[in-house]
Amino acid sequence: MTSIRLVFIFPLIALINLFIYVLQYPTLPSVEEDIGLMYMVAGHFSYLEFAFTEMTFPFTRDVANLARLAVAKARDGVSSKPDGVQALMAASPGSCTRDFVLDPLVDVRLTVISPPLP
Fold first, then answer.
1. Is 17 found in the same domain as 71?
2. Do 92 and 116 touch, CB atoms closer than 8 A?
3. pLDDT at 109 over 50
4. Which long-range contacts (CB under 8 A, 24 or more apart) does 33-37 make?
5. One domain for residues 68 and 90
6. Which residue, 14, 26, 36, 113, is the most exposed by fewest CB within 10 angstroms?
7. 8 A C-beta contact, residue 25 and residue 31
8. 24 contacts: CB under 8 Å, gap ≥ 6
9. How distant is the alpha carbon of residue 66 from its chain centre?
10. Cβ atoms 61, 43 nearer than 8 A
């Protein structure tokens, strides 16, 4: 059981944790190294495919590619859209409602309701 954990389970858990971390914080400066580690884990599973021909792990390479694409999309979105905090600060207090996209990867909108000025 211990060798299965070392060879299969622990690298898979590391890959999933890195994937979640990259999706949560795609604009951090360390994200390139995180994606590099994800590709290292995918290479580990590619070696397992080579060593044990009856096993295949296409999921690992796909997860690393999805993380890379999410970071590229987040970087494009950050450069072209204002930051959510800056947009909230720029909101005029006289407007009734305003919608702001806080995260370009997740379509979650925050509606700010402010009373009209007298």
1. yes
2. no
3. no
4. 34/67, 35/64, 35/67, 35/68, 35/71
5. no
6. 113
7. yes
8. none
9. 9
10. no
Q: Based on the domain organization, do 89 and 76 belong to the same domain?
A: no
* Model-wide pTM > 0.85: no
Q: What is the CA radius of gyration of the chain?
A: 21
Q: Contact, 56 vs 49, CB < 8 A? A: yes
Q: Considering only 52-61, 77-86, 95-104, which range has the smallest mean pLDDT?
A: 95-104
Distance, in Å, from the CA atom of 18 to the CA atom of 15, rounded to the nearest integer, reads 5
Q: Are residues 94 and 76 in the same domain?
A: no
In Å, how far are 24, 44, 82, 99 from 110, measured between CA atoms?
A: 18, 42, 14, 6
* Shared domain check, 67 and 16: yes
- Kindly report which listed range (28-37, 51-60, 63-72, 80-89) carries the lowest average pLDDT score: 80-89
